[in-house]
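TL;DR need structure tokens for one chain.
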Amino acid sequence: MVASAGRHSDAVMVSVADDGPGIPPEDVPHLFDRFWQGGGDRAGGSGLGLAIARELVRAHGGRIWVESQLGKGSTFYFTLLNA
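>> reply
TL;DR here they are.
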């Protein structure tokens, strides 16, 4: 896992990347939905973690997203406006 943070225009951008199995493209649009859980052996929990993260980031004027490629891993990003 690799994490980084830095200034990006008028915001701070944070990213966390892994080299895991990646996220199926059909799952990506739902990752930040409340109570949504992906299939397979990854299922578990309440399906609220990323939805809560999205609301916290939005409350601070930022945005959150993911880029993923099957077999190559995923990178989660979020921005927060500079105060």
